Amino acid sequence: MTEFSDQYGRIIDYLRISITDRCNLRCRYCMPAEGVENISHDEILSYEEIAEIVAAGADLGIKKIRLTGGEPLVRKGVPDLVRMLNQIAGIEEIAMTTNGILLPQSGAELVKAGLERVNISLDTLQEEKFKKITRFEQYQEVLTGIETALEVGLAPVKINVVVMKGINDDEILDFVNLSKKYNVHVRFIEFMPSGNKKLEQEKRYLGIDKVKEIIKKEEQLLPTEFNTGNGPAYYYQVGDSLGSIGFINAISNHFCSDCNRLRLTATGQLRPCLFSEEEIDLSEALAEGKEAIKNKFIAAVGQKPVGHSLNNETEFLTNMSQIGG
């Protein structure tokens, strides 16, 4: 199979797919308390349409798939989709980003269908603070979801932590300790603006350099052999920990030069860059067949910018829940 590359020489082999805009939490940095207006079911791609799009992408060189939402597991029948994608020639890896709440019910079936790895979003290890951040009381369910992921053999299990000044920056070392005790890989992520929340971004942003500084006061960041993944995180080990800690600094030191991905929204929009409002509609191409879809992929890759224009003074108008983050 030939490599699929853009005009800047970046190999594009990774497709993130939002399969729903709905979520069973209301995280403050992701969506408003009242949620967002739900897209009607007839506007959302069917599983068959998603598989058709992935098959076209695989012909060009897409090898890795990540299912996102909203919360992907609120949509019924996700193991069926995983099974369909796992049967597509050229697809080498299927992963998921989830809040973990529904993993106990579906984890084993997802693994059987072909899901290999999972990222679980968890921004605090304190139950009351979890309620404040997410506006829900399902902290224990998330912990059970993490346990389930480890038990059913999803590997690696990564914990995504969005670091927010004045909210969870006092828990950075607690998350480091989590990587010592369990075979999980904690990733500290810089708070990114979304949904027209510039003021909150200015108040809550904490750069990765500061996060490292906090850790280094207590721990030594050591090299690690753990480097598996398709994303921008870079990893270290602390002592004889079972897991690792990673850092994603989209704001302070963006990783665009290594970007290998496209995004597909739940409504069938192909997005060349997360931090751009530019999208390519696949609805007509779906009606026309695989070659038309492949042409849209080629167009999307051709429109990938050299880098995003996002910084801690930029407003990003789209809610993360609507494009899969």
Written overview of the protein:
- The chain has 325 residues and is α/β, with parallel strands linked by helices.
- It has one domain (14-322): Alpha-Beta Barrel (TIM Barrel), CATH 3.20.20.
- It contains ten helices and twelve strands.
- The protein has helices spanning 47-60, 78-86, 103-113, 127-134, 139-151, 172-181, 198-204, 208-216, 283-288, 290-302; strands spanning 14-18, 64-68, 93-98, 117-121, 157-163, 184-190, 221-222, 234-238, 244-248, 261-264, 269-271, 280-281.
- The chain has a twelve-stranded mixed beta sheet.
- Helix 3 links the parallel strand 3 and strand 4.
- The radius of gyration is 19 Å and the shape is globular.
- The model has no long low-confidence stretch (mean pLDDT 90).
- Monomer and homodimer.
- Residues 7-233 form the Radical SAM core domain.
- One of its GO terms (biological process) is Mo-molybdopterin cofactor biosynthetic process.
Q: Find the CATH superfamily.
A: Aldolase class I
The class by helix and strand makeup works out as alpha/beta
Q: Mean of the pLDDT scores?
A: 90
CATH class: Alpha Beta
General shape: globular
Which H/E pattern describes the elements? EHEHEHEHHEHEHHEEEEEEHH
Number of domains: 1
Major β-sheet strand ordering: 7-8-9-6-5-4-3-2-1-10-11-12
Low-confidence stretches: none
Q: What's the total count of β strands?
A: 12
In terms of quaternary structure, the protein is single chain
What's the total helix number? 10
Task: Work out the radius of gyration.
Answer: 19 Å
Strand content: 15-25%
Q: What is the percent of helical residues?
A: 25-40%
Q: State the end-to-end distance.
A: 29 Å
Write the CATH architecture name. Answer: Alpha-Beta Barrel
Binding site for GTP: 16, 66, 97, 158, 261-263
Domain Radical SAM core: 7-233
Protein name: GTP 3',8-cyclase
InterPro entries: Aldolase_TIM, Elp3/MiaA/NifB-like_rSAM, MoaA, MoaA-like, MoaA_NifB_PqqE_Fe-S-bd_CS, MoaA_twitch, MoCo_biosynth_MoaA/MoaC, rSAM
